[in-house]
Write a sequence for this structure.
């Protein structure tokens, strides 16, 4: 995997922030139920020359694996990438690594459909274009709307943003092959 895999995961379901005490610390953070996925992120950051942390944490009524990297240069690279996200400007291998990370963070696959869920419709549109150019067709549909009630890990709340889903039905097996996943 590559840095683009990690950027895909962070774009999918991660976070970045700056800790202010005692001096600014720049953090990229990811939380997952899935230990193998957390291990993959940890190993990729490590192979890229960063010093990640991997630790268990009980949060929001559930057990999670946290992967965290504190690095100002990496934080800057990610912010520049995210603020100017343009998958068509990347090499194909980088785009595929990005999609793999994004899918591992936000995707699902069943017997009938492969799907990717996110609040950022623009990212899903870029993924849809790349996949279409590789013979994989999918549709973007609105899932839950902002304001809809939600219950996450037993905690009730209200969705803050619209949720979008890129569904791939007929070409699900081609999608799996493209990303080198089992169909």
């Amino acid at each position: 995997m590559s840095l683009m895999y990690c950027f895909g995961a962070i774009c999918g379901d991660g976070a970045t922030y700056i800790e202010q005490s005692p001096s600014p610390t720049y953090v990229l953070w990811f939380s997952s139920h899935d230990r193998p996925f957390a291990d993959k992120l940890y190993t990729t950051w490590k192979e890229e020359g960063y010093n990640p942390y991997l630790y268990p944490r009980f949060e929001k009524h559930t057990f999670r694996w946290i992967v965290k990297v504190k690095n100002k240069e990496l934080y800057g690279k990610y912010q520049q990438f995210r603020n100017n996200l343009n998958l068509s400007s990347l090499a194909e291998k980088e785009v595929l690594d990005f999609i793999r990370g994004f899918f591992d963070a936000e995707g699902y696959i069943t017997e009938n459909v492969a799907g990717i869920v996110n609040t950022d419709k623009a990212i899903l549109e870029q993924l849809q274009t790349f996949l279409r150019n590789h013979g994989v067709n999918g549709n973007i549909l609105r899932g839950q709307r902002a304001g809809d009630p939600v219950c996450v890990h037993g905690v009730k709340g209200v969705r803050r943003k619209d949720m979008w889903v890129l569904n791939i039905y007929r070409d699900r097996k081609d999608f799996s092959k493209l990303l080198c996943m089992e169909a």
